[in-house]
């Protein structure tokens, strides 16, 4: 398979601009097909990369693509939230870290992975198929409250009504396939669902099945603390929930006094900024990239640098 068939990396120039900060060890916490890692290893001959992904198919593709870099790259199948405890990081601060969130084109395009709303896909949606239950299992076992919370948190359309309808029909007809889930959506909307509505529903379910927001909330501060002074953290998100979480974290780390009541008995050192935001507004794809690669269109890049 050609590397670009697996996943075409987005915002490569922009990632390099913010991420590269000299030789040393970099973390690619969402290696996917290894496109960003390859660019990093090529442009910075003194860099090494720890390439992490939860998905064994992604790691296999990344290994193949990056084989020529020999021992400058190491691979680990794990969530990026746990990457700071990887033995490679012992005693060495990260020169930089990248999180390119969400799913790869490979995951979306393979019907058997069950991320797609194209017809006839079994609802799986797991990035790591060994670690937890599938989307169909979640839909079969979740309470109404759990369903509602998951759909609302992921910005699905009409989350309350959808949760009720899934529950109502599951005794007779479980929601097991993409067609079942689209049928539920259309029964709530009372008409054919648009592409965007289906995408929002499937994305909300995927985020819940893989516990994506929790991984991001825990991973951001853990990776921040693993950076060496002056090291950068670059995050690309594709969903407003993720982008908000990144924006808030970067802002709070850059101004720890933010939101604290005045006259609180805290020492100045506790209020010192941990670093600074490098991107006032999120960086997005230019017209040419958005035209060539539709999956770059929703991408929002934010970058932060740890104080030197
Ligand atoms: C958009 S793709 C990354 C593409 C990659 N930058 C490239 O150049 O090919 C997102 C990848 O992140 C992985 N992923 C998502 N959440 C993760 C997590 N918490 N820990 C590790 N990998 C994760 C997915 O399995 C997927 O392969």
Molecular structure report:
With 308 residues, the protein is α/β, with parallel strands linked by helices. It has two domains: 3-106 and 212-306, 3-Layer(aba) Sandwich (Rossmann fold), CATH 3.40.50; 133-209. It is 42% helix and 15% strand. It has 13 helices and seven strands. It has helices spanning 3-6, 12-19, 35-43, 56-66, 105-109, 135-141, 144-153, 159-170, 178-189, 195-209, 212-226, 240-254, 287-292, and strands at 24-28, 47-53, 73-77, 94-100, 227-237, 275-277, 300-306. A seven-stranded mixed beta sheet has the order 3-2-1-4-5-7-6, sandwiched between helices. Strand 2 (47-53), helix 4 and strand 3 form a beta-alpha-beta unit. Helix 7 (144-153) packs antiparallel against helix 8 (159-170), helix 8 packs across helix 9 (178-189) and helix 11 (212-226) packs parallel to helix 12. The longest helix has 15 residues, at 195-209. It starts with a helix and ends with a strand. S-adenosylmethionine is lined by residues 7, 9, 29-30, 32-36, 52-55, 58, 79-80, 100, 102-104, 127, 215.
In summary, what is this structure?
The protein is α/β, with parallel strands linked by helices and 308 residues long. It contains 13 helices and 7 strands.
CATH superfamily of the largest domain: Vaccinia Virus protein VP39
* Shape descriptor: globular
Cofactors and ligands present?
S-adenosylmethionine
Report the CATH topology name of the largest domain: Rossmann fold
Tally of DSSP helical segments = 13
Query: Reading side by side through the largest sheet, how are the strands ordered?
Result: 3-2-1-4-5-7-6
Radius of gyration: 20 Å
